[in-house]
Write the structure tokens for this entry.
Amino acid sequence: MLILVINPGSTSTKMAVYEDEKPMVLRSITHTNEQLAQFDDVLDQMDFRKQLVLSELQRMNVPMTFEAVIGRGGLVKPIAGGVYEINQRMLDDTHNGIAMHNHACNLGCLIAHDIATQIPGCRAFIADPGVVDELNDYARISGSPLMNRICIWHALNQRAIARRFAQEIGKRYEDLNLIICHLGGGISVAAHEHGRAVDANNALDGEGPFSPERAGSLPAADLIRLSFSGKYSEKQLLKRLAGKAGLNAHLGTSDVKEIEQRIAAGDKHAETVLNAMIYHVAKNICGLGAVFCGQVDAILLTGGLARSQYVISRLRRRIEFLAPTYCFPGEDEMEALALNALAVMRGQRDVLEYA
């Protein structure tokens, strides 16, 4: 089966063509700031990005004979994990901004659906979007009845890594208790209990450890006072939570390699801030040990920052007492999407309905 995979990010659109499990094409189309500046809204970029994908397929002489197109899932309403066939309600919720987050991942289902409709018999899917919500009852309750906890996390990559780890040790993901931490521009930490992520943080806009680009949890009263200080607009403050936050706010860059070079050159402030981020990540990982009453089979570290020996070595020192720790650098999102679509097309996994 020929499957097209589309994964839009803030400054790039990744695409892949798989023939069954085999990747035939892997591309990352970079978008410059000048190109994106012409659009007032992220969703306005849909036709622009779709045409770039189609042009790349044409340039490589890839026939438009796909059995399925699968896109990275967007920030729609909270749903259970799994593979969803794109329907009109999902498209409507994406266009209406139901999750109130304007993120490039929202383009995944729109582009996948639009391309699939041009191909007779082709189906369009998403899988394990960032709004997958399988929280247990305790995890959902916050200290105020005015707001429940929600999770926005790297569900797709975490699940892919969990299944990969389980296969490597000869067990089923559904039989394990795992704590998984995705280390990227945002950092998500989740407790996977027998195949369900029963606790996870909102890694997009205000919970958990701070990261290269995000503020994580902040002192609530101070944030309220800042909101009414008149110094910042709502838009500016939201940017201080995601984007101009974390390492970027403290050190003027979110590039950990650059920060490591500054540390090697004797920058003590950079060393303190990066070590503080590692410290808070470790606290969040170990805190999830309470979900399992300490009975954790393994801790899995993944994402782009998992390539950093500086980060991983210091993180291991703080968490390995809890459970054996394994590192899976990078992301398996493209392969995960392709394999999810393939499993549905082969009848090996149920397809879910977004309702």
